[in-house]
């Protein structure tokens, strides 16, 4: 799982 | 971007618009917790610091700026422009009881011990409980105007839709973030009682009134 993917959420 | 996330974001945006319109049109912020609005301003400020460091998309940048700007605008309207209408006697929740544990938890449970990462994690934890002063105010006065109920419903739906988004991303993209998921679950659970009252009362045209 890539944590930075969640950062593209708001 | 999947449909759950899009509708989650739109629901969040709708909540903010409803709140600002309510305050602006009625020239009053009665029934709204300034404490919750301060917490939201802190949440967006600490979460969107990455606006300075990372570019993701025009949509992402636009929404982040809107969320930060409107949260400050709301606090300004409540504490400055329409200060006289602010329900300060009922808005007595102590926000340090939410901020301090969120800080400690973010320092202990995070993905990476860096300033930006800890602040991001803090904002996720704080957001999950930021609505408590508002729910406390509603329970203290025993009622909420319909427009305030619509605001709360839109705001609560946003994280519930994000939960569906995370379920979708887990299966479709093999992606999950446990910190966001657990905090999102807590956040949504806090609204459950309100959701029940909203569906059984407000949608049937009645005012949201808590049982005596």
UniProtKB/TrEMBL annotation, chain B:
One of its GO terms (biological process) is protein transport. Its main location: endoplasmic reticulum. Pfam families: ER_lumen_recept. The chain crosses the membrane at residues 62-80, 92-113, 119-139, 178-199. The keyword Cytoplasm does not apply. GO terms for cellular component: endoplasmic reticulum membrane. The keyword Transport applies. Keywords: Endoplasmic reticulum, ER-Golgi transport, Membrane, Protein transport, Receptor, Transmembrane, Transmembrane helix, Transport. It is found in: Endoplasmic reticulum membrane. It is a multi-pass membrane protein. GO terms for molecular function: ER retention sequence binding. It comes from the Eukaryota. Belongs to the ERD2 family. This is ER lumen protein-retaining receptor. It comes from Cephus cinctus.
């Amino acid at each position: 799982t890539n944590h930075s993917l969640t950062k593209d959420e708001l | 971007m999947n449909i759950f996330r899009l509708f989650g974001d739109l629901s969040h945006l709708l909540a903010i618009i409803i709140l600002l319109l309510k305050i602006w049109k009625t020239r009053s912020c009665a029934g709204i917790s300034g404490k919750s609005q301060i917490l939201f301003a802190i949440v967006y400020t600490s979460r969107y610091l990455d606006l300075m460091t990372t570019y993701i998309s025009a949509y992402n940048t636009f929404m982040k700026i809107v969320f930060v700007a409107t949260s400050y605008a709301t606090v300004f309207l409540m504490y400055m422009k329409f200060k006289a209408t602010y329900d300060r006697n009922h808005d007595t929740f102590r926000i340090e009881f939410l901020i301090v544990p969120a800080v400690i938890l973010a320092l202990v449970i995070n993905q990476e011990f860096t300033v930006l990462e800890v602040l991001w994690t803090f904002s996720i934890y704080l957001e999950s409980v930021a609505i408590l002063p508002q729910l406390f105010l509603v329970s203290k006065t025993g009622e909420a105007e319909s427009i305030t109920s619509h605001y709360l419903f839109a705001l609560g739906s946003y994280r519930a839709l994000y939960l569906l988004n995370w379920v979708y991303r887990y299966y479709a993209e093999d992606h999950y973030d446990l910190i966001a998921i657990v905090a999102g679950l807590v956040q949504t659970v806090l609204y459950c009682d309100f959701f029940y009252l909203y569906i059984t009362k407000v949608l049937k045209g009645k005012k949201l009134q808590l049982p005596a």
